[in-house]
Write a structure and sequence with these properties.
With 124 residues, the chain is mainly alpha-helical. 51% of the residues lie in helices and 6% in strands. The longest helix is centred in the N-terminal third of the chain and has 15 residues, at 6-20.
Length: 124
């Protein structure tokens, strides 16, 4: 794509969201032949105008289809409080796979937090 104006670039971003339900920063940068920093700057501007909602590495519409309120990220505490019984069972089952002297990496997420809270060191 040849060099386009800021307005055309932002219009392209909004069309991508309208057509696909979301856009990715890396893909937009490649499509428009600009840096990811430029795309993030455009997304910040469009978010300030309440035209989109930014998420990590992407953007989506501010309004979900047929939803009267803006789509916002759910807090971690809300996620952690949801389905706690199931998350406790998953954590308990996962702990059964950890053997003495194992080294494990725990990723992000509410279920992983419960797992990390329950696991006890074994071995030396």
């Amino acid at each position: 794509m040849t060099m386009i104006s800021i307005a055309e670039r932002r219009k392209h971003i909004l069309e991508g969201i309208r057509n696909n339900g979301f856009v990715k920063v890396a893909e937009l940068a490649e499509e428009l032949n600009v840096t990811q920093a430029t795309i993030r700057k455009d997304l910040r501007f469009l978010e300030e105008k309440n035209l989109l909602y930014r998420a990590h590495g992407s953007a989506m519409p501010t309004m979900a289809p047929a939803a009267p309120t803006p789509v916002k990220e759910v807090s971690f505490e809300t996620k952690k409080a949801a389905h706690t019984d199931l998350k406790q069972r998953i954590a308990a089952r996962a702990i059964q796979f950890v053997e003495e002297n194992d080294t494990i990496m725990i990723g992000p997420g509410s279920t992983m937090t419960i797992f990390a809270e329950r696991i006890q060191p074994r071995g030396t």
